[in-house]
Amino acid sequence: MTWPDRLEANPFGTMAAVAAVALGLLGAAIGDDVSQGMLNSLRDSADIVAHLWGGALALGGALKLYGLYAKRTELEIPGLWVMIGGFTFYSITVVTGLGVHGLAAGIVAAALAGGCALKTRKIMRTARLVRGNGADGGS
Amino acid sequence: MAVADVLIAIAQVAAGGTIVQGALAFFRRRAELRQLDRQTDSVAVETADRVMVMMRKELEDAKAASAKAAEENAAEQADLRRQITLLGDEVSRLRAELVVARAQIARLQAGQPPAAAPG
User: Fold this and answer.
1) pLDDT truncated to tens, each residue of chain B (119 aa)?
2) Which residues of B touch A120 (CB under 8 A)?
3) Which residue among A100, A110, A132, B69 has the highest number of C-beta atoms inside a 10 angstrom radius?
4) Is the Cβ pair A53, B17 closer than 8 Å?
């Protein structure tokens, strides 16, 4: 499978990872200015947490992209997990900090987290299936 | 602000928990995922192969059934042809008898006045 095939097979996953990298890099570089919701909800610790969150989210997106296009699922899965955490964290903090005004961003981020969780589940199930069908017959 | 604090705590636990989950997936499920990578292509090939075998088997079955049907058909045709031949023979035999009978009738009709037939 060449990369255009992979892109065609994973359009949403690719874009979710790109969004994670972009948003994470912004968060890591700018800090709490990247999100008013995070600033409101985390208050004193907002800046350092935003930097850490951005770094983690960017790392997750990068792992996901690398794992997907280099065919390294053992890196794609941790990337997806970190993306779930990053998007969930953003979703909750933005809704907590902005209330109704944060709902749009919160829902989009929560949907991305949910998509990553579903993809993780799908990959793990396939892995179990492949292992179950393997020549060694392990469980 | 109690609700907000609880939500933030949940968010932090979620973020931390998923990082731990990611690490666990990397360290404990690595072998499984590597195997998946190795086998993804071969699984696809295997599936395609299985479908091919299935279709070939179906094709062979269909061919065998068709051959059997053709054989039965041929046997039936031969039987019918035989019957037609028999019927043709019968018809010609009957026609010949008819000709004989007609000739006899004609002879009898012609021969009645001069030589009164016995009986």
Assistant:
1) 688 888 888 888 888 999 999 999 889 888 888 888 887 766 666 677 788 889 999 999 999 999 999 999 999 999 999 999 999 999 999 999 999 999 999 999 988 765 555 55
2) 25
3) A110
4) no
Distance from CA of A30 to the nearest CA of B (A): 20
Q: Which residue has the tokens 């409101």?
A: A40
Q: Taking a C-beta distance cutoff of 8 angstroms, is the pair A35, A90 a contact?
A: yes
Full 3-state SS string of chain B: CHHHHHHHHHHHHHHHHHHHHHHHHHHHCHHHHHHHHHHHHHHHHHHHHHHHHHHHHHHHHHHHHHHHHHHHHHHHHHHHHHHHHHHHHHHHHHHHHHHHHHHHHHHHHHHCCCCCCCC
CA dist A85 and A95 (Å) reads: 15
pTM: 0.67
Buried b (16+ CB within 10 A) or exposed e, B12-35: bebbeebbebbeebbeebeebbeb
What type of residue is A17?
A
Predicted-complex ipTM score: 0.79
Residues of B in contact with A134 (CB under 8 A): 35, 39
